[in-house]
Write a structure and sequence with these properties.
2 domains, 7-stranded mixed β-sheet, single chain, alpha/beta, Quinone Oxidoreductase, Chain A, domain 1, 18 strands, 345 residues
Amino acid sequence: MRAATIRGHGGLDVLSIEEVPEPEFAEDEVVLEVRSAGLNHLDIWLRKGRGGARLSEPQILGSDAAGVVIAVGSRVRGVDIGDEVILNPGLSCGCCDYCNRGEQSECLSFGIVGMSRHGTFAEQVAVPARNVAPKPSHLSFNEAGAFVLAQLTAWRMLMTRARLRPGQTVLIHGIGGGVALYALQLAKLATARVIVTSSSDEKLERASRIGADHTINYDSVNDVSQCVKDLTSGMGVDIVIDTVGAATWPIDFSAVRRGGKIVLCGVTSDASAVTDLRALYWNQLTIMGSTMGSDEDFRQMVKAVTTAKLRPVIDSVTPLENIKDAMRRMETAGQFGKIVLEISK
């Protein structure tokens, strides 16, 4: 079968499309014929060797997927051949204290499909049966293959960690990426007021059209945090959603209100940042890290998407063979929405 693989860390040159064996599967697993798979920053970080992840050789990339079940293990119940499903890419042991408390993403052995095991940028992928769920009927395969990892991350950040309430104000950095856009959609679904930032006027205009209340071009202003204060009558926002890291960390502390919350899920800039501890304690701030989501987060997120008939913002759909071009677009922050790899039809 065709798959997008790497055999070492590095630039785009380490990526290749090659023929690999069809996946073997355990008695509690299913095999999906992958129709579509969304690209995530995780795929780039793994390719570059960030985080020290160990590779299989070759390593098949990819964490998101929507597809059709074509094989089931002998112990699988409730999933049948022919089912159209989406994938929760979070992997946990299922038996530790964290898992027993329902916090699978805190499991000491937590991993992600495409990093801890072979991924979804292939014509077929084997995954635990408990990690699949019915594809929301209002979504196409391309839409369904694009939303879980980033949407689940945004859900946990806003709903589980920050406990967003109606009427609160949220600042989202770097609108255009998957997590940022899903956070915008979810915040507006919860009737929050949303401020977004970008260096692109085009992206800010598009964000306005899908619900952003205020936009800030950080290349066109002297002080982003002062703009935020001006928009909030000097108070600051209730919640900051940060996927950037060091580049936005000082802004977070200046833009959030007293008693507010800063939630970080990743770093697309530097991972090391200086923290103003006096601002932290004096303003009684809450700083939270957030990774993917629990099984319950996944269920609640899918229920919300299905009930509200939310659709992901799709930047582009491209064949698997064009993965280098797709990754290059993401690495240069050219996208607005999810980049989808179409694996099969």
